[in-house]
Design brief:
disordered C terminus, mainly alpha, single chain
């Protein structure tokens, strides 16, 4: 019935505490960087299994990091350009571009969506300065643990497996 000033003050403090927790949780929401190369697409040809893998690794870094809708479009364009430069195959580069444009939207609950490094639901949220620092640190951590990167590690495993099969 009658609320006291003390109960309103307690409610106010609780609301402020929750707002602080929500606004500072963003950096903690960032998962370690992972890559699977070109996700649902080959990383290269039969003769060169990692021919455009590095393009996909760089694309994964951008997608993991997330950000604005314009940043996503730029990342997809960079992927298309990179694949074309490595292959001179305009149809392949365009197919990959159209695939990531169609399937990489942040609304999809997939492991390869835009902003997959964050908890689902972030969407096209610009990164704060603190989040940018945290993403750089996590990428540095990835490279320190995986100096050859996903593609280099995959290439070494493929070569070793081929030698074993001979």
């Amino acid at each position: 019935m009658g609320r006291t000033i003390g109960s309103y003050a307690a409610l106010f403090l609780w609301v402020i505490t929750m707002l602080v927790c929500v606004t500072t949780a963003g950096a903690a929401d960032l998962h370690d960087f992972t890559s699977d190369g070109c996700s649902l697409f080959p990383d290269g040809t039969v003769g060169d299994r990692t021919k455009w893998c590095e393009c996909c690794l760089q694309h994964d870094i951008a997608y993991w990091r997330g950000g604005t809708e314009q940043e996503r479009k730029k990342a997809d364009e960079v992927l298309r350009t990179c694949v074309f430069e490595r292959t001179r195959d305009k149809a392949l580069a365009e197919t990959m571009y159209l695939g990531v444009r169609a399937g990489g939207h942040p609304v999809f609950p997939t492991w390869y969506r835009w902003g997959y490094g964050w908890s689902y639901g972030r969407g096209y949220t610009p990164l704060t300065e603190n989040e940018q620092k945290n993403t750089r640190k996590k990428i540095d951590d990835y490279w320190s643990k995986h100096p050859a990167g996903y593609c280099g590690e995959r290439s070494v495993k493929s070569t070793s497996k081929e030698r074993e099969e001979q």
